[in-house]
Amino acid sequence: MAAGPSWSVMPSVLIVEIFSYLSLKDRLRASSSCKRWRSCLFHPSLWCGVVLNLSYSKRQRTRFLVERCGRFLRQVVICFNSNNPTEVRECLRILEVLSENKVIASLGLQPSSCHLEWTCEPPFYVTDRYLTCIEKIISTSRKLKHLSLGSVDQLLEHSHTVLELLSRYHCDRLKALHLASVKEDSENYGIIDLNVDLIRSFKALQHLSIDYDFLSSSLLEAFLSTEKDQLDRLCIHVHGIEPDHEKITNETWRKLRNRHPKLEVTINLIHSYEGVANLLDILQPCLPLTNFRQFFCSNLNMAAVDFISTHHSESLRSFYVIDGFQDGYPNLYISTTEEDPFVMMAWRCSKLEEFTLIGYEVLDDNVVAIARLRGQNLKTFNIPYSCVSTVYETDGENAMQVERYVNPELADMVSSSLGWSWQPLPDNQTPRAVYDDQADAETAYMKILHSDQAWKCK
């Protein structure tokens, strides 16, 4: 007050407090008032969590932010095109800065694919440099609670090293660990030597993502200890299945569910032909299945679909299947019962909120039935135009015929049941890999997998 009515001499603690109530956009505008306010913009308390985007239009801004705040950021997500060597290199530079950060609590990689592309240097050189930074981040940080390697197979091949360091430095505080990978060739990949017993050391773990290759009764029983925090989410990626892989018993799942009553399990089948064929061996009645997803597996196990809707009717919230067309046409699924299995799922599963079926032919009457049964509880309902068929009667020898066109009244009937405006998914919004088997399928599911691995802990 003695200095007069000048905003520029307001104490820094008050400026920072004001900034803390503003959105990032308004905070940036306010910081342009004067040099003093600009300096307060970069107070550590204002930059707890950031998403660093390495696309060309945002790269300069990201570089500046990392240079100013990289050593005191607490929650960091790095989004980048892993098929672009420039963005892969930029991501590495960010990791080098973060390796000096002692307060980082959450690190998540969100690449566009499961592979890192690089030019000039051999592939192993890229992996080694990334791993060196990640290892240093783990050993330098004093507060690490969440780590996601973005399903990058090249990095996750060294999960044993990451797991050992996490066990050594963060066994009492780590809340989320995501080691699940993506195998584009699910029939031909090596199984790494991963000592899953180290997971026993994590006392605060709430979220875990892991490949089905390493899932065992021993691992699940480690969470039965009363000394551990509640396990809230378990995400399982299914690729190939070894002939001698242990089958998790229903009794093991029953014990785990009783110990962790709020546990939600997500099963993602990714290019997994064996996973579809053996799905009934993976599923168990006491498994608390919340999200089931199947990405480009070339088949549907209708007996397993019926099993899910029968035994997981009280837990299933999301059902997502996407597959490629065969010879330019959607696939057909053969029901083992008189009723359509997806209509029965809508009837039985009282908590179903999201339903997506792409790549398979669906009768318009069944689309309407699903919408009527779920009503306003269904928040997401994705069926492409090109997958909807209409049955009509004829006077000829064939009493019924099926035609691939959308009844003009379909959208209105479905919208009326859902309570929100619905349209079949336009073909131009359907992933290209559905129509073109040469297209990159990862663009259809990587964002979904990243959402599984986002920071959600309390």
Automatic annotation (TrEMBL):
Coiled coil: none annotated. CDD domains: F-box_FBXO33. Gene3D superfamilies: 1.20.1280.50, Ribonuclease Inhibitor (3.80.10.10). Residues 4-50 form the F-box domain. Pfam families: F-box-like. It comes from Potamilus streckersoni. This is F-box domain-containing protein. One of its GO terms (biological process) is positive regulation of protein ubiquitination.
